[in-house]
Amino acid sequence: MKARVTVTLKQGVLDPQGKAIEGALKSLGIDGVASVRQGKVFDVEVPGGDRGRAEAALKEAAERLLANTVIEDYRVEIVG
Amino acid sequence: MKSAILVFPGINREHDMARALRLCAGSDTAMVWHTETALPDGTDLVVLPGGFSYGDYLRCGAIAARAPVMDAVRAFAAKGGLVLGVCNGFQILCEAGLLPGVLMRNAGLKFICKDAYIRVERADTPFTRGYNAGQVIRVPVAHGEGNYMADSETIARLEGEGRIVFRYTAPDGTPSPEWNMNGSIYAIAGILNDRGNVLGMMPHPENHVEDLMGCTDGRGLFAGLGGHFAA
Q1: Which of A44, B11, B38, B226 has its CA 20 to 30 A from that of B160?
Q2: pLDDT tens digit string along B157-198?
Q3: What class of enzyme is it (chain A) (predicted)?
Q4: CB burial class (10 A; 0-12, 13-18, 19+) of residue B216?
């Protein structure tokens, strides 16, 4: 099974990297971008076919390591 | 006095730290590898030095914070043992949950490598007894992620309980956004845990301890610790 954990900064947390990327997009002349927030994506292979168990394991992974929940939110998806 | 200096892959200030502890505090020093599950017998002080543990992968300090030796550090701190984290060591202590909050990318995005002026807010801690309250010391910083942040409740507690021990200021000690070089909330350069036995700070006192370094303002921290254990 393939899964994806997406980690993003919480709303209100300053994201200077996202701001810099936003500025670079503007300097490239790419229109239609109002703002950018940078995050992280983890693609994970999970053995077995138990969806609930995979989700529980990845939630624990996100809570204990992949995300710093002081400043970040996370989302777990089973993608196939 | 016996100090245990933790060594994670990618840490690079452990020898500076050991030299400062020997020179200014007369401490014995032991290097402790991250895979150890116990601290050396008779350890008085645990030090997490600066560097770039695990190449700052994932988040600064995130992987080191989950290393086997950190369980021993948690147990040591829970018994009241003194723990000092400098720079990457501060980041590791936050990631390990031994200190609140997080160190984010510097507000100006640049890696900052220069001297900072920090005001010692309290002299009644084992880490700062070598200084006077209100004294301003010049200590180098070298970090890309030193922008301290925590939720407003935590910040209010840190401030209310006097746990903000070091603050970036102008050389004369006045608060100034210009001298708060990384954008830390309340110009925080160093904090204590709620029990007062774990200190994290971004600046490197170990790099200002000898005349050859051009400044000896860092000596007070180590000399104070030496005095604490001799007392």
Answers
A1: B226
A2: 999 999 999 999 999 999 999 999 999 999 999 999 999 999
A3: ligase
A4: middle
Residues of B recognised as catalytic: 87, 204, 206
Distance from CA of residue A80 to its chain's centroid?
18
CA separation for the pair B146, B107 (Å, rounded) = 9
Residues B83, B37: Cα–Cα separation, whole Å: 16
- How far apart are alpha carbons A18 and B76 in whole angstroms? 39
Q: B97 touching A, CB under 8 A?
A: no
Number of domains in chain B: 1
Q: Please answer yes or no on whether A13 and B150 come within 8 Å at the CB atom.
A: no
Residue A40, Cβ density class (10 Å: 0-12 exposed, 13-18 middle, ≥19 buried): middle
All domains of chain A, ordered by start, with CATH?
A: 2-78 (3.30.1280.10)
Asked if the Cβ–Cβ distance from B62 to A13 is below 8 Å, we say no
Amino acid in the structure at residue B45:
L
- Kindly provide the ipTM of the predicted complex, given to two decimals: 0.85
Instruction: Compare all CA atoms of chain A with the CA of B154 and give the residue at the minimum distance.
Output: A70
For B91, the domain range is 2-230
Residue in chain B lying closest to A12 (CA)? B151
Is the separation of the CB atoms in B101 and B191 below 8 Å?
A: yes
Residue A10: its pLDDT value, please?
A: 95
